[in-house]
Amino acid sequence: MSTITFRRPDDWHVHLRDGAMLQAVLPFTARVFARAIIMPNLVPPVTTAAAAAAYRDRILAALPAGLGFTPLMTAYLTDDSDANEIEQGHRAGVFTAVKLYPAGATTNSALGVTDIAKTYPALERLQALGIPLLVHGEVIDSEVDIFDREAVFIERVLAPLMRRLPQLRLVLEHITTKEAVDFVGGAGPGLAATITAHHLLINRNALFAGGLRPHMYCLPVAKREKHRLALRRAATSGNAKFFLGTDTAPHPIPDKERDFGCAGIFTAPAALEIYAQVFAEEGALDRLEAFASLNGPRFYGLPVNEQRITLAHRPWRVPDEIPTEAGPLRPFLAGEEIGWRIEG
Ligand code: DOR
Ligand code: ZN
User: Fold this and answer.
1) Which ligand 1 atom lies nearest to the CA of residue 251?
2) Domain count, the chain
3) Which of the ligands is closest to the CA of residue 194?
4) How far apart (Å, rounded) are the C-alpha atoms in residues 246 and 304?
5) Angle (nearest 5°) at CA 312 between 303 and 290
6) Could you tell me if residue 335 is left (phi over 0), alpha (psi between -120 and 50 degrees) or otherwise beta?
7) Ligand 2: distance of its center to the CA of 28 in Å?
8) pLDDT by residue (tens digit) across 245-291?
9) Could you report the per-residue pLDDT of 193-205, keeping only the tens digit for each?
10) 2 C-alpha to center of ligand 2: Å?
11) Active centre residues (catalytic)
């Protein structure tokens, strides 16, 4: 098969940032994806409906002419999130979902949740209204090995939360472990997961291959090979619980290549193409549409896209560097060849 045409996909996990960076990175997402779930970890975080509506306006204003793209906004959950604010924002059509960052787990998560019990009133309201909670699933306990933080989160936080609020709709974001694949696969239909392109390609060796590799660093960090293989099986299985979320997360090169360098991999310039390559390698191109274009809308209760996209097996090279007004960016797989490209 040298070309494949399917419904236009959506990206269920994107960091678009703001200002000059938003302007620079938005076209890479909007060229491909019809809709995207927009992460709220700005500085300050997007906690109110007014802030989310204003951010949505800035995204739409930054959109290149002629590109149809719908940003789906999220609320950043804090210890004292107001359930009424979330409900009103949802009823006003602003909030599609709510994002839970454990405080300190990742970029701009300092104002995240310190103790999940503090958010029960808000989470009970989400459950009652059917609003999905999107979860960064890592414990922040520094005693827990960083490679175990997702599995431990499932055991210590997610499973008890699901027992307490069994009807809460949940997406475990950017899963990186076999434990997460098995847990999500074994749970009821209210729990789904997104899988990034980079976690399908790299294992933790990539962080150290030939030297320290900051552009391979993201959170949750890539795990052992057996976990990468479990993610590939899940993504290409056709199981409706797994869908596309790139977690594309741009940081200027100087912020990646310093001490305390930022976590985040900028995959938007080649994301769908990488997924296509993975599905081709797994002999599962016929299931790419389910993963990229059907399973996500089904979980979110949204219509599927009517437009089509075509990918062809025609190699191209990812740019080494992308200059922007917000500083230079290094895309994932910079300088490397990818087998699939978008034809239209
Ligand atoms: O690697 C990451 N980068 N993981 C996250 O959870 C946040 C993201 C970012 O905002 O840069
Ligand atoms: Zn993210």
Assistant:
1) 11
2) 1
3) 2
4) 18
5) 30
6) left
7) 16
8) 999 999 999 999 999 999 999 999 999 999 999 999 999 999 999 99
9) 999 999 999 999 9
10) 32
11) 247
Task: Report the alpha-carbon distance of residue 265 to residue 83 in Å, rounded.
Answer: 32
CA of 216 to the centre of ligand 2 (A): 14
pLDDT of residue 181: 98
Task: Identify which of 177, 200, 178, 196 has the alpha carbon closest to the alpha carbon of residue 278.
Answer: 200
Domain of residue 212, residue span: 3-342
| pLDDT tier for residue 109 given thresholds of 50, 70 and 90 | confident
Q: What is the rounded average pLDDT of the residues 158-171?
A: 98
- The ligand placed nearest to the CA atom of residue 42 is 1
Which amino acid is present at 293? S
99 lines ligand 1 (CB under 6 A): no
- Cα–Cα distance between 338 and 270 in angstroms, integer? 8
Does the structure show a pLDDT above 90 at 298? yes
Query: What does the pLDDT read at residue 1?
Result: 62
Tokens of 94: 């602003």
- Output the six-digit token pair for 79: 């210890």
172: which 2 tokens?
Answer: 């475990």
CATH code for position 112: 3.20.20.140
Q: Which residues surround ligand 2, an ion (CB under 5 A)?
A: 247
- Residue 324 DSSP one-character state: -
Residue-wise burial string across 208-239, b where 16 or more C-beta atoms lie within 10 A, e elsewhere: eeeeeebbbbbbbbbbeeebbebbbbbbbbbb
Are 131 and 92 a contacting pair, CB within 8 Å? no
Strand ranges inside 131-288, DSSP E: 133-135, 170-172, 191-195, 242-244
